[in-house]
Amino acid sequence: MKQSIILITILFFGFVAVNKVQAQPIDDERTKLVVGAKAGGNMSDVYDSQGQNFKANPKLGFAGGGFIGIPIGKYVGFQPEVLFSQKGYQSTGTMLGGTYTDTRTTSYLDIPLQIQFKPAEFITFLGGVQYSYLLHQKDVFVFGANSTAQDQQFKNDNVRKNIFGAVFGIDINVDHFILSGKGCWDLQNNVGNGSSYTPRYKNIWFQIAVGFRLYK
In the chain, what is the greatest distance between 2 CA atoms, to the nearest angstrom? Predict the structure, then answer.
């Protein structure tokens, strides 16, 4: 059901954008410098877990920040972004004969550096690399009738704060508004040299956001 709603929304934005482009064929927006802001959400999970007795499930988180589109030509550009991005997972497992659940929320500063491909004014394809810096982590652990919440400051664990990843996406452009969809994943795992007691994993997430842009 959610996938159908997303598809219908994208098709609606595309239909409106096509009519807008046909109405203004002379002034090509693809050659203009663009600055803007956007906000939305991440559906995140983890992969490449090694030697851990838990099952991870996706969780929702906030994502938002600013971006700039720098035209290199009519069809190609460069788009860096600075985003606050919540990731993490929900896991279940067994301990002392009982079942536990653990919800981990990790907050990152994400800086994607993307190449734009702009076949038409209403649509932009994006692809590139991303630098992520770990700002904060929170775990909510539930075992039986007991529940605990812990904010991690990373003082006593060997976690990797600096992580590089890959990102690919698409922007649907309608006047000053955009609908953005991205798929992103870490290329490095979250632990430093393997001595961490934190479970080893890599983040993977799908991001949808709505934004507003201004032309310069």
Answer: 70
CATH class of 2-215: mainly beta
Mind giving me the DSSP string for 99-162?
A: EEEEEEEEEEEEEEEEEEEEEETTEEEEEEEEEEEEEEEEEEEEETTEEEEEEE--SSS-B--E
Domain locations along the chain = 2-215
- Residue pLDDT, tens place only, 157-171: 677 889 999 999 999
pLDDT above 90 coverage of the chain, percent = 50
In our burial notation (b when 16+ CB lie closer than 10 A, e otherwise), range 141-180 reads eeeeeeeeeeebeeeeeebbeebebebebbbbbbeebbbb
